[in-house]
Design a protein that fits this description.
Elements (H helix, E strand, L loop, with lengths): L1 E10 L2 E11 L4 E5 L6 H8 L7 E6 L2 E2 L8 H4 L1 E4 L11 H7 L9 H5 L5 H17 L15 H13 L5 E5 L7 H17 L3 E5 L3 H7 L2 E6 L2 E6 L1 H5 L2 H8 L4
Parallel strand pairs: 3-8, 3-9, 6-7, 7-8
Antiparallel strand pairs: 1-2, 1-4, 4-5, 9-10
Length: about 250
């Protein structure tokens, strides 16, 4: 589904990615790991079209992803969550999820401006947002503002909002950041269930190693912008270069 080949990114004299290659198959959960500065977020931002690659190629379902504009990513079937929550605190949970479906709108500018034939579309959107909240066990909070809710609840809300764009590929930027041990376990189960229920592929950038190794089908380990290991969690976890990278010793 996703094919990354020899991607390099340079910022002036700084090499953030150096010939990185890996693949993700349909239905897989892929964890992207590495010490701080390894280039994980840079690769994440190349896929979501925030950064341009200096060289290399990225294909998504056989299409050149690097030719796409950032605003067109959602229409290709790619959605993302953020390490720092990017929610609207004064909006209700239902409204936050409805915002996530904007990329799927069919009304057009003139119809939306003059509200021509939009009543049914808005009802359908509200119904779909309500279904997504229900699937994330948030429907009892649908009409509550997002402000003041527990962090774990807001993480699930952000997943629901991402799902509103009807993606086939979900990018998750450090989803376990700021969560308690119990919330991490709950989130892990949520990610597995969402992958299965919505037939998604998932790539997550995450420092919480127990979570990554517990839910990933494959893991890509990076150091200094390069891939140092790729494979099943147990294989990567026992890889000498990965162990050396995390211990700060030379491999």
């Amino acid at each position: 589904m996703l094919d990354v080949q020899d991607v390099s990114v340079r910022f002036g004299g700084i090499v953030a990615l150096d010939g990185l290659s890996f693949t993700i198959d349909e239905g897989q959960i892929c964890g992207l790991i590495g010490p701080n500065g390894a280039g994980k977020t840079t690769m994440f931002n190349v896929i979501s079209r925030i950064y341009d690659a200096t060289s290399g190629r990225v294909s998504f379902h056989g299409k050149d992803l690097l030719a796409a504009q950032a605003h067109g990513i959602a229409r290709l079937g790619i959605a993302r969550t953020f390490q720092n929550l990017a929610l609207f605190p004064t909006m209700t949970l239902l409204e936050n999820v409805m915002v996530g479906a904007h990329s799927q709108g069919r009304g057009g500018f003139m119809k939306s401006t003059f509200r021509i034939g939009t009543a049914k579309a808005e009802r359908d959107l509200r119904d779909e947002a309500g279904d997504l909240l229900r699937s994330l066990q948030l429907d009892h909070l649908a009409f509550r503002p997002a402000s003041g809710l527990p962090f774990g609840t807001l993480k699930r809300l952000e997943i629901a909002r991402a799902l509103a764009a009807r993606p086939t590929f979900l990018l998750m930027d450090e989803p376990a950041s700021g969560l308690t041990h119990g919330e991490v376990d709950e989130l892990s189960e949520t990610i597995r269930r969402v992958r299965d229920d919505f037939k998604l592929s998932v790539m997550l950038v995450e420092h919480h190693m127990a979570m990554v190794m517990g839910i990933s089908d494959k893991v890509v380990a990076m150091e200094f912008g390069r891939k140092i290991a790729e494979g099943r969690p147990a294989e990567v976890q026992n890889n000498e270069r990965v162990i050396a990278a995390y211990l700060g010793t030379s491999a």
